Amino acid sequence: MSEIGVGLIGFGLGGRVFHAPFIQHTPGLALRAVVSSDPAKVQAHHPEVAVMPTVDDLLRDEGIALVVVSSPDHLHGEHAIAALQAGKHVLVDKPFATSLADARRVSEVAEEQGRLLTVFQNRRWDADFLTLRRLLDAGELGDVVHFESHFDRWRPDVAEVWKEQRDGGSWQDLGPHLIDQAIALFGRPQAVTADIATMRAGAQAPDWFHVVLHYPAMRAILHSTKMAASHDLRFIVHGTGGSWIKHGMDTQEPALIAGALPRDEDFGRDPREGLLTFGDERESIQPANERGDYAAFWKALEAALCGKDANPVPASQALAVMEVLDAGLRSSAEGKTVAL
């Protein structure tokens, strides 16, 4: 079988760390070209890959079937539509777009062009999230009544980077991960109550959020701050059968930033196990963690492009995340619960 040619737009943290290594690691995919204003940086990592100065140059390459959009947020919609209209399949980094209207337009163009459109929701393959899914599927917690998901950091100083100035701030940056995980577990919520705020002196965009997703018999709380010196709490899950509390973040991102590769022996291993407390008299236990596996997303995407499996993150699921993002912004601005 011939390999699927892949073109990458952008070689910042996302392109360099989350996309290029996995494209090259996945059988059936071949990274052919990168759009970047810094050819030396690209070729230092991938000397065999062509570096193109513009998106139009990339889209004219008939050897590229899949375009990965890892440009700044405000360009996601524009670049995704251009690639789809050029006849390419498209993977968009999160957030899908900067507005719900733009995300819907991208989805419409994909349908019009008959091309696969997916969004990079890698944290469905975090070790802790995979472990939680296993516990829920096994009925260890019973029916969940309280789900709390944290993505906290200690970054008291405001950095002079575009991500610190993006519209929506942390809610637009980290919110898509937490929303997608909640929807993957519990489905689309009925309503959203959000408080999105700026806590750090000099910050130009929100850096704190506390959002409640309303479900008929449970609540999902999504929380993030950049002012947590103690920031290792990840999940608190209470159910009719017990509770599971997990500290420590998935290890794949820091490992990738440090130069690890998906094929490394210990890649994806999480050494901090969560505590499972039962509602009856059984002793609490620490269930073994699943192994984190971002590569699984890419394997599933390659299979979908070949018609062998389903799209790992279809546009409909990405739009559901965008609906919650949009409702959260409106809820916080208007000081009320927003129904979906």
TrEMBL record:
Pfam families associated with the record: GFO_IDH_MocA, GFO_IDH_MocA_C
Domain Gfo/Idh/MocA-like oxidoreductase N-terminal: 4-119
GO molecular function: nucleotide binding; oxidoreductase activity
Domain of life: Bacteria
Xref: InterPro entries: Gfo/Idh/MocA-like_OxRdtase_C (IPR004104), Gfo/Idh/MocA-like_OxRdtase_N (IPR000683), Gfo/Idh/MocA_oxidoreduct (IPR051317), NAD(P)-bd_dom_sf (IPR036291)
Gene3D superfamilies: Dihydrodipicolinate Reductase, domain 2, NAD(P)-binding Rossmann-like Domain
Keywords, alphabetical: Oxidoreductase
Domain Gfo/Idh/MocA-like oxidoreductase C-terminal: 133-340
NCBIfam families associated with the record: PRK11579.1 (NF008607)
Family to which the UniProt record says this protein belongs: Belongs to the Gfo/Idh/MocA family.
Protein name: Oxidoreductase
Source species: Aurantiacibacter zhengii
Origin organism lineage: Bacteria, Pseudomonadati, Pseudomonadota, Alphaproteobacteria, Sphingomonadales
